[in-house]
Design goal:
CATH architecture of the largest domain: 2-Layer Sandwich
Shape: globular
CATH superfamily of the largest domain: CofE-like
CATH topology of the largest domain: 60s Ribosomal Protein L30, Chain: A
CATH class of the largest domain: Alpha Beta
Structural class: alpha+beta
Order of helices and strands: EHEHEHHEEEEHEEEEHE
Length: 264
């Protein structure tokens, strides 16, 4: 068994309204990748968010009273805090430089996943008149519904190529119990998020009692290594050799129920 991850080259800077499925099919032709049944495409959240117009300039945001209250505690721009509040179900922790929230999509993350890196007005056309809007004030929100985004991209690529594939949308998150960010799945379509191995025998015939594998997150972490975190310009990775059968999947499989979350 082998797992092969290949960066997909020749993907341009993505703009609002771009058709990611068409761009990926064209880029795979350029990279000489022929899709096969069982292959998976892993996409960085940023290109999905940009294509969907999830960019906001802070100059257009009016902070609420709650945002103004949190600004000195977190040492953050109150306009950014307002966006974090809008994208969150609940604030869990705060400290200077970070706000830990339950995102409206259900997972726990810092700053509601809102990011400044690799965002500039040249990559989208949300506003016709950019005069007076500072480049450093542009931020990017997570996709509105990453599972739906992944499904749409998958279905269009399958129709264009005839291959039965999976699509994974990933982001970089920290973890409660370790330093460093890792790639995790935030949108899943056509592959399992969680693989339940309970009841299967180990090497000595004992049946596994609690083992469930976060397969989508494991793959997300591997693909994130290929993408990089800075100026690498590799927002999509082709995967062949995923060790589990493809099936319908969703982000919700990976989300731990609140009553079982010992870190809250």
């Amino acid at each position: 068994m082998s797992l092969t991850l290949t960066p997909i080259k020749s993907i341009p800077l993505i703009r609002h309204g771009d058709d990611l499925a068409d761009i990926l099919v064209s880029a795979m032709r350029t990279t000489d990748i022929q899709l096969q049944d069982g292959d998976i495409l892993v996409l960085a959240q940023k290109i999905v968010s940009k294509a969907e117009g999830r960019t906001v300039n802070l100059a257009t945001v009016t902070p609420s009273e709650k945002a103004m209250e949190l600004a000195p505690q977190t040492e953050k721009d109150p306009r950014l805090i307002e966006l974090i509040l809008q994208e969150s179900n609940e604030i869990l922790r705060t400290r200077p430089g970070a706000i830990i929230v339950e995102h409206r999509l259900g997972f726990v993350c810092a700053n509601a996943g809102i990011d400044h890196s690799n965002v500039s007005p040249e990559t989208f056309e949300v506003f016709k008149d950019l005069e007076g809007l500072k480049v450093e004030d542009w931020v990017l929100l997570l996709p509105e519904n990453p599972d739906h985004s992944a499904a749409q991209i998958r279905q269009k690529i399958e129709a264009a190529t005839g291959a039965h594939i999976g699509v994974l949308i990933i982001d970089s998150h920290g973890r409660a119990w370790r330093e460093g960010t890792v790639g995790i799945a935030i949108g899943v379509s056509g592959l399992p998020g969680l693989v339940d191995l309970r009841g299967q025998p180990d090497l000595f015939g004992f049946k596994l009692q609690i083992t469930q594998v976060g397969a989508a997150d494991e793959l997300a972490a591997a693909a994130s290594l290929m993408m990089g975190q800075a100026a690498e310009g590799t927002p999509a990775v082709h995967v062949r050799g995923f060790p589990y059968p493809l099936r319908k999947g969703k982000l919700g499989e990976l989300l731990r129920p609140k009553e079982q979350d010992l870190f809250r």
